[in-house]
Amino acid sequence: MKQISSAQNPFIKSLVLLQEKAKARKQSGTFLIEGLREMELAIKGNYTFETILFLPDLVSETEIRKRIPYSVELIEISKEVYQKLAYRDTTEGIIAVAQTKSLGLADLKLPENPLIVVMEAIEKPGNIGAMLRTCDAAKVDAVIIANPKTDLYNPNIVRSSVGCLFTNQIAIATTEEAIAFLQQNHIHFYSATLQNSISYHTQNYTTPTALVVGTEATGLSKPWRDEATQNIIIPMQGAIDSMNVSVAAAILIFEAKRQRGFV
Known about the structure:
Elements: E1 2-4, H1 10-20, H2 22-28, E2 30-34, H3 36-44, E3 49-54, H4 61-67, E4 73-77, H5 79-85, E5 94-99, E6 115-120, H6 125-137, E7 142-146, H7 155-160, H8 164-167, E8 170-173, H9 175-184, E9 188-192, E10 198-199, E11 209-213, H10 222-227, E12 230-233, H11 245-259
Parallel strand pairs: 1-4, 3-4, 6-7, 6-11, 7-8, 9-11, 9-12, 10-12
Antiparallel strand pairs: 2-5, 3-5
């Protein structure tokens, strides 16, 4: 088995770039996944691993072979190398080099009566990760990220989603493409915005539905507000007029799930 003990190894340096640079991830078509739980969710989501690096003090080759259902190159690494690559303080001593996936709207496989979440131009990876966790918890049918401001395989998204990046069906598109897709598929969409809105709980989300949220700073762009089936708002009863986008999304998603009988 191959072993790498130096953090100055060229292959390790290339993996550090995958952690740090979206350009490197895009050019190589690969990204890093830390932790056995996240790797198992990635396998469930049909992601493919090219290489697995592991620290033998924390995880054994036997354990890895038991968890990974196909043959993959294993590389034993030193603690120095692991600390150079590890993005989190506490993982199980295992890192996978995984292939990215096609994330086009045409790749989405929707049921007859879908519930979709659209995130437009969300900048903070932590907010995207938190919403992906909620979408997984609610078993949302698809997530569309419109006009993305950050690379989906950013390690902060992988980490903050606790692997739900891999369990959700996700597509990346422009706002114009996303709106056209929803209209062509006869999916009503409800835009969370302050302008010309009525309370979210008055709407019917039991038909094909998309819930659209935007940034806290600037909100949704004009096309989402103008083309929406209805603009909706969560009534604020305190001193401020908005809440964290991931919290707002969770409220809307679970109201839709409540109306659908949590199925």
